[in-house]
Amino acid sequence: MKDTTTVDVVSTFVECINAGDLDGLCSLMTDDFAFIDYGGKVERGKDVMRQGFRSYFSDYPQYKNITEKVLTGGTGVAIIGKTTGSHISPEVEVKETVLWTAEIRDGKVAQWRIYADTDVVNQTSE
Fold first, then answer.
1. Average pLDDT, the chain
2. Distance between CA 12 and CA 104 in Å, rounded?
3. Residue 102 in contact with residue 10, Cβ under 8 Å?
4. C-alpha span between 97 and 121 (Å, rounded)
């Protein structure tokens, strides 16, 4: 059986992303929240990511994470899915599978990491 506490936190986190709900999203982050993009770049701190998400939501108001499968283990949650409305072209988004992982601490997201199917991204952008 899945740990509904960690799944609920991550599900709500994704709902906030999909709604462009910056305040809701930040309320689910630890103060030392870490965001790691698919290239491995790390951004740290809730305040830093508030500005980062504010900018992204402004630039890509139709951005959505589409959950296809959820996996759990300990304090971690992994989501397999797709995106729409992101900085990636629609031609890539339709072909690309994305993996998001989250580490939960004290009922909040401490780390959010994105893994992308870079072969698809690279083939489509060439």
1. 90
2. 12
3. yes
4. 10
Domain 4-125, CATH number (from 3.30.750.24, 3.10.450.50, 3.30.420.40, 3.30.470.20): 3.10.450.50
pLDDT digits (tens, 9 = 90+) for 70-126: 999 999 999 999 998 888 888 888 888 999 999 999 999 999 999 987 665 555 444
d(C-alpha 98, C-alpha 92), whole Å: 11
Dist CA 112 CA 110 (whole Å):
7
Q: How far apart are CA 19 and CA 49, in angstroms?
A: 16
**Model-level pTM?**
0.87
Return the amino acid letter for 67.
T
Rounded to whole angstroms, how far apart are CA atoms 46 and 82? 25
**Whose CA is closest to 104, among 45, 37, 51, 28?**
28
